[in-house]
Amino acid sequence: MGNSDSKLNFRKAVIQLTTKTQPVEASEDVFWDQFWTDVNLTAQDMFALVPAAEIRAVREESPSNLATLCYKAVERLVLNADSGCVCERDRQTVLSCIRLLTRILPYIFEDPDWRGFFWSTVPKVGKTDESDDECTRPLAESLLTAISDLLFCPDFTVESHGRTSADGPSDIQSIDSCEFIWEAGVGFAQSPPLNHTHDSSRAELLKLLLTCFSEEMYQSPSDTHTPNPWVSFFCSRENRHALPLFTSLLNVVCAYDPVGYGIPYNHLMFSDQRGMLAELALQTLIVSLEQELVDHSNTSPNPSTNTDTCSTTRGENLFVNYLSRIHREEDFHFILRGISRLLNNPLLQTYLPHSCKKIQFHQELLVLFWKLCDLNKVPPYHFIFYLFSYLTIIILILQFLSRVGLVHICVFILLLLSGERNFGVRLNKPYSVRVPMDISVFAGTHADLLIVVFHKIITSGHQRLQPLYDCLLTIIVNVSPYLKSLSMVAANKLLHLLEVFSSPWFLFCSPVNHHLVFFLLEVFNNIIQYQFDGNFNLVYGIIRKRNLFHQLANLPTDVSSIQKALQRKRRSNSTHNAVFMETNNPLQTGTLNASLKAMPRIDKLTETSQVSEDGTTLSLQQSDSTHSQSDHSSETRKENQMCFPLRNIHADHIRFLRALFQVLSWKSKLPLQTIMRLLQVLVPQVEKICIDKGLTDESEILKFLQHGTLVGLLPVPHPILIRKYQANEGTALWFRTYMWGIIYLRKEDPPVWYDTDVKLFEIQRI
């Protein structure tokens, strides 16, 4: 009965607010207290009793009342944070304010006229014992400070450690929050007792924090991107809880075990408040890490530097700083073990259907993994260095590659890792663990697994994946100089890709398709020049498919051949041709999906480096590569200029002329010398053995090739070129839309951003 009265009274207060035509003064506490004092409503109740239409109506017709409501709610949060929420009534008041602000903020952010409201200077709420020039501060700063304080408030979100109700406010403000970190792990050895009430309060605060950060969702991707001010302040030295917050969020995520003791169907019998907290902690963490350091040169190269004593400037993101400085082996082990356990959870197969709880935040986990690889680079003990001894997580990433919605983020991760020499070396480890994947059966190494999975993605015929082909092949190119022994299955997969990409109709139909052939030829050249001894399977495959290379060397450039190839493509309606259509890739959950920005091309994603004899890399200009993307772009522009006077000619003729100019520009640059020399030496030898011994079994030929050598017979080895991932505006925008698209779709109960005017991406109903 009491809860019904609370709902009724709250609804009456909302109606009063929406019907008042005159501003209500901030001093009228009796009116404003109706919204949070003695209000016992769940988040779902709050969303139902405060309709979107009424929030927009107050925003348009009584803006001063909406502004006062926000100010008074923040003021009440600050006052209770200062006092320490010493009684249950104060805690319930705080929760009501949190839920009300979570409901209102998205409708303030969606209106450009209100965009700067929370960053306008208002009379300082809470204590005013500072100097006169500091008695005002932006409302956003007061709100973020209060949230941070409340996340370490004894008896509300953390254990009290013996505090009594007689303790004054000064005791609350002076507590060392590093002693109240939520979970053992990085930087904290003690594991606090599990408290579902505290976890629930933390989750409510993190929802509000994410809502504050979400102002970024209401800015168009075409707008000039400026740092998110909410994240900037929250992760700056102005937040005295930055270090314990970072470690709490990271440890809660990595320590979470959704399976527990493995009792079937336990998730249906007991509520899992820690699971909800882990998801919100992960989302808060990846958003906080999205704003990177402006200047990385100040980062100390000494791995022994403590995270809590590092020097910072006001512009630094402390979360990024702390993440980049993790260096202890036990910390890396804790993080990798936790991420692997959680990534493996959605892939678990059980005998009893739905007997094991499956997490839904694996996409956010992949983003966190990306951040760890990209940001933790302080030598000599950095995350990637430790990762290469933990190949289990690479297998999990390859498993996720088979899911269309996860392909892009997994490819980004593998592209980043492939820029490291040790990654290619570690892929030579035998692949013995069999995981359920719909791929060809083979016996070989992790490198074979990578190639087989990539082949399946490329030949699956999914039209959304075409922009990823050059990224997938770039990864193989980067690791190819270190692959000691490819299996017959993997070798045949590579040759099949060359067969597909070197067909005349495919080469002529686009000005960039020949890049894929160049990448594959570079793979073959790297293996022949640097790993010939163990790769007899690939050499045998090249000999068997030698006609492919002869056809490439003799690719026709006459008018009739090009016309026939283009006409053959136009007549074909097969799904294989449709693979090469470029479209945006959507995120999808339930009945909604969020469209993502198109992924940048490989020349925008990578920077070419040359590997020297001592293993160090030297950055090269893109133009130094014989088939660099910039060269091809300039050639394409020349072709367009040459075709410009022909605008009145039939479109088919223009397409033909462009194809002719393209072939003439890159055919002479095909790196076929090494392969043709190999064929020139080995083909006669293999044919002679087959004739002399009457061989019909390929095992004897493989044995001959295994013990053969080409020392002194091949051209001088070319330098190894590695295309390393290079951060840029295009990838930053892609990650921003991907990350917020995931968070938007995940928040369904309550639907925080549903039906608001989001501009960062498009929402479609399916």
UniProtKB/TrEMBL annotation:
Q: Where is the composition biased (Basic and acidic residues)?
A: 629-639
Q: In its UniProt entry, what is this protein called?
A: HID1 domain containing b
Q: Which organism is it from?
A: Cyprinus carpio
Which residue spans traverse the membrane?
Answer: 383-416
Q: Name one GO cellular component term.
A: membrane
Bias-annotated ranges (Low complexity): 616-628
**UniProt keyword list:** Membrane, Transmembrane, Transmembrane helix
Q: Name one Pfam family in it.
A: Hid1
Q: Where is this region: Disordered?
A: 608-639
